[in-house]
């Protein structure tokens, strides 16, 4: 009995330490200002991801996209409501590469509010392939805490 209890306690402690090494963060992205996205999202995500990688801790980052930020996650701007948006067109190539890298290298997940997409008539097929858009923003904001 003592052995079983000891094993159970060891298992629980190892699970607790495994969870302690996992850090979760959600970025609620609503801005349509490319300079803010560059500074406060992309550069910040790169720095945070590198820090936790160096610390050898698992980091789960989710970016929830809504508001005026949709335009920066659309692959085919010509087939979107943002086809004439000069700012989106100007930064698209730069952002495309860096956002893809955040997804590929650091596992950052990008989730777009499906409700806002419908309101803006954004077709899911125009998004970058790493952007998910299945549910509304609130569900994504809650979801990461349940993982």
List keywords for this structure.
alpha/beta, disordered N terminus, Hypothetical Protein Ychn, Chain: A, 5 helices
Commentary on this structure:
The chain has 147 residues and is of the alpha/beta class. It has one domain (22-146): 3-Layer(aba) Sandwich (Hypothetical Protein Ychn, Chain: A). It is built from 5 helices and 4 strands. The protein has helices at residues 2-20, 34-54, 86-106, 114-120, 137-146; strands spanning 22-29, 58-65, 109-112, 131-132. Strands 1-2-3-4 form a 4-stranded parallel beta sheet, sandwiched between helices. Helix 2 packs parallel to helix 3. It is globular. The two termini are 33 Å apart. The model is unreliable at 1-18 (pLDDT under 50).
List the helices and strands and how they pair.
Blueprint: H1 2-20, E1 22-29, H2 34-54, E2 58-65, H3 86-106, E3 109-112, H4 114-120, E4 131-132, H5 137-146
Parallel strand pairs: 1-2, 2-3, 3-4
Helix pairs in contact: 2-3
Helical region count?
5
The name of the CATH topology is Hypothetical Protein Ychn, Chain: A
Structural class: alpha/beta
**Which strand order does the major sheet show?**
1-2-3-4
Task: Give the helix level as a range of percent.
Answer: 40-55%
The CATH architecture comes to 3-Layer(aba) Sandwich
* β-sheet strand percentage: 5-15%
Q: Low-confidence segments, ≥5 residues, pLDDT <50? A: 1-18
CATH class: Alpha Beta
What is the CATH H-level superfamily? DsrEFH-like
């Amino acid at each position: 009995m003592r052995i079983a209890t000891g094993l159970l306690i060891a298992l629980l402690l190892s699970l607790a330490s495994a969870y302690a090494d996992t850090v979760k963060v959600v970025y609620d992205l609503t801005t349509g200002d490319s300079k803010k996205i560059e500074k406060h999202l992309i550069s910040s995500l790169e720095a945070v991801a590198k820090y936790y990688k160096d610390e050898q801790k698992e980091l789960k980052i989710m970016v929830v996209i809504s508001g005026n930020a949709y335009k920066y996650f659309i692959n085919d701007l010509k087939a979107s409501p943002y086809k004439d948006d000069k700012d989106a067109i100007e930064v698209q190539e730069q952002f495309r590469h860096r956002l893809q890298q955040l997804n590929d290298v650091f596992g950052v997940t990008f989730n777009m509010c499906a409700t806002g997409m419908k309101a803006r008539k954004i077709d899911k097929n125009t998004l970058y392939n790493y952007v998910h858009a299945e549910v509304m923003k609130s569900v994504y904001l809650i979801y990461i805490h349940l993982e």
